[in-house]
Each structure stands twice: as structure tokens, then as C-alpha cells.
Write a structure and sequence with these properties.
The protein is an alpha/beta fold. The protein contains ten helices and 14 strands. The longest helix has 21 residues.
Length: 352
């Protein structure tokens, strides 16, 4: 297939590009390479896929020096004309929209960035998909949409009308917009509610990265809710395998769907929502312990109250994805943390 991956310089997008290119798909990666976090890391990911920094120009496709079936373009999702022109030129079979303004806490500081990228940008992708015959639009949602819901594990059949951050609200909006396009234009859309993803080349604003760096530098780590938190940590390779399987299987109409008993995870339109996670929550303090063991150093913990917008626990009910896609995440937390730390030490030239 010819597949567009937006957010190709991002953590998940970078790994997905490699997976799809390795298996032989024709791939176009898109990213605006914004400065939300370390640009050197984003350019390092791009270099790994054969895209050199000095060859990148806004709005111009760059051929990969590593993959003959991969091209990259620097483009803003908010650039309606640029997005439209790209879709008209390339005629994608499928789109995986991973580009977004990320981060729960940052949404308290810069809410406009979330409207621009996650709302306006998403509409541009959906419109371009609609007008250019895209066979399947897959897009990143988030576990944060569950908001105030306290029933565990989080199920896609649960109500998600009580988000507690603008980031979460923007992701819920993506799901609503996707359903509209599926309903009005018979366009298959699948939303993936990602749970806490970690691994090599991960985002430096995420807990594993922050903790690892601080412990190495003998600095204290911030541990929210006094460590009484759980996260459904999922290793990147498990996530990418799930995403690739979803891309290959466009959402179908649920023939048993009833407007009298509406199921939020499907529709009479070709629309589907899945949780994608490990399905086994890990205590935050156990996660920190795994980092300490691999670094051979103890963390100095700065115990803090819960941050606004955070939730006590995330735990994915992944039965839908397991049943439909034979999805079986298999990476143990200790193995995954070990792989990340090995990458971190090599990438940053750390001497322990």
C-alpha cells in the first residue's frame, strides 16, 4: 500500500515508518518538526530513516537515503492547501495520523497549540482523505479521554464525556469528527486510544526519559501523588505491531449496532475505536525500581501531590484489539526498560 504517516519525526511515527518501510509499503512521512521538545532527537529519528536535516525544506518531499520506498515532507497539518496538494499528488491508500500537539500538562500552558494541530489539523487530514479516496484513516486518540472515569480496566464501551485536560478533549473531538466522516461519507476510520508508550527514541517529556536522565545526573525525580499511581506501560514494538495490523484492516460497519442501545466503540458506519496498551497496569514505584536496577543507582524521590489533569491509574481493556487483530503485547516491563536504557546510554554517550 501507499501509506501516509503523519508525525513521522515523533516517537511512534518514527517507529511506524520503519516497520511499514521494512515490510515493503510505499511510505510518505509528514512532520512539522516543531520545538515542543528537543529538536536534535527529532532529527536523529529522521536521520535513522535516511532523511538528513540539511535536505529538509518546508513543503518539499525528500527521498530517503536508507529506504527506496520512503519519502518525507515537512508540513504543518494546519496548512490546508499544502495538505490538500500532497493528498492529490500521492493518492494514499491509507493514512495513519499520529501528528498532534502532545502532553497533558502543556495544555494548561498553551491551549491554542492543541486547537491548531489537534482540531484544525485533524479536519484538514479528514477532508483530504475524503476528497482523495483514502481507503482507511487511522488516527491517534489517547487513554486520557477516559478522564474522570474510575471503572477499571478502561473499556471502549465506557462513557468518555468527562475529560480533565484540553489535550484529552481534543482527542475526544477527533473521535467525534471521525465518526461524522464515516457516517456522512462512508469513509472507514479507526481511532487508537494509546496508553503509556515507552522505548528507544521515546519522548523526553515522558516519565521514563525524565527519570532516567535525573537518576544518572544525581538529581531528584518528581513522583506525583506520592507514588500512588499506576500506568499501563506499553513497549513501542508491541504498539507498532498493533498499529500496523489496524492499518491493514479498515473499519467495517457493525451490523448489530443499535441506535436504541448505542455502542460507542463502533457504529452502523465504518467506524471503530480500540484501546491499544499492555492490559497490565504497573505501579509507578515498581517502574522506578526497574530503572534503578538497570542503572545500578537509586533515585532521589521528590514526592508531590497529584498534578491537575493527571489521573490515578490507566489500565486498558484490549480485548477488542486482541479479538479482531490477534494483538498480543508481550514485552515485560523489566525487559522494555532495559532496552530503553541501553539505547539511552549509547545515544547520549553516558558513562555510568
Amino acid at each position: 500500500m501507499k501509506i501516509l504517516v503523519t508525525g513521522a519525526a515523533g516517537f511512534i511515527g518514527f517507529h511506524l515508518v520503519k516497520k511499514l518501510a521494512d515490510r515493503g509499503d510505499e511510505v510518505v512521512g509528514l512532520d512539522n518538526i516543531n520545538d515542543y521538545y528537543d529538536l536534535n532527537l527529532k532529527y536523529a529519528r529522521l536521520k535513522e530513516t535516511g532523511i538528513e536535516k540539511d535536505r529538509i525544506e518546508y513543503g518539499r518531499e525528500v527521498e530517503s537515503a536508507v529506504y527506496r520506498n520512503y519519502k518525507f515532507i515537512k508540513l504543518n497539518l494546519e496548512d490546508r492547501d499544502g495538505v490538500s496538494a500532497l493528498f492529490k499528488k500521492e493518492k494514499f491508500d491509507a493514512v495513519c495520523n499520529l501528528a498532534a500537539q502532545a502532553g497533558v500538562r502543556y495544555s494548561l500552558i498553551n491551549p491554542g497549540a492543541y486547537v491548531d494541530s489537534n482540531i484544525s489539523g485533524f479536519v484538514n487530514i479528514a477532508e483530504a482523505s475524503r476528497h482523495n479516496g483514502v481507503g482507511h484513516l487511522v488516527y491517534a486518540s489517547s487513554s486520557s479521554v477516559y478522564g474522570l472515569n474510575e471503572r477499571m480496566p478502561f473499556s471502549t464501551s465506557d462513557n468518555v464525556d468527562h475529560p480533565i485536560s484540553l489535550y484529552a478533549a481534543s482527542k475526544k473531538a477527533n473521535e467525534l469528527m471521525a465518526h461524522t466522516y464515516s457516517h456522512l461519507f462512508n469513509m472507514p476510520t479507526t481511532g487508537l486510544r494509546f496508553f503509556t508508550v515507552y522505548g528507544p527514541y521515546g519522548r523526553p517529556d515522558m516519565a521514563l526519559f525524565l527519570f532516567c536522565r535525573a537518576i544518572i545526573e544525581n538529581k531528584p525525580i518528581d513522583v506525583y501523588n506520592y507514588g500512588d499511581m499506576k500506568r499501563d506501560f506499553t513497549y513501542i514494538d508491541d504498539i507498532i505491531e498493533g498499529v500496523a495490523r489496524v492499518i491493514d484492516r479498515p473499519a467495517a460497519k457493525d451490523e448489530n449496532w443499535s441506535g436504541m442501545r448505542p455502542n460507542p466503540q463502533s457504529s452502523r458506519a465504518p467506524y471503530k475505536i480500540y484501546n491499544i496498551g499492555n492490559g497490565r497496569p504497573v505501579k509507578l514505584l515498581d517502574f522506578i525500581e526497574a530503572i534503578e536496577e538497570n542503572l545500578g543507582k537509586k533515585a532521589v524521590k521528590n514526592m508531590l501531590e497529584m498534578q491537575p489533569g493527571d489521573v490515578y491509574a490507566t489500565w486498558a481493556d484490549t480485548n477488542g484489539l486482541c479479538e479482531d487483530m490477534d494483538y498480543r503485547p508481550a514485552t515485560d516491563i523489566k525487559d522494555g526498560v532495559k532496552k530503553f536504557i541501553e539505547w539511552y546510554i549509547k545515544f547520549y554517550g553516558v558513562k555510568l
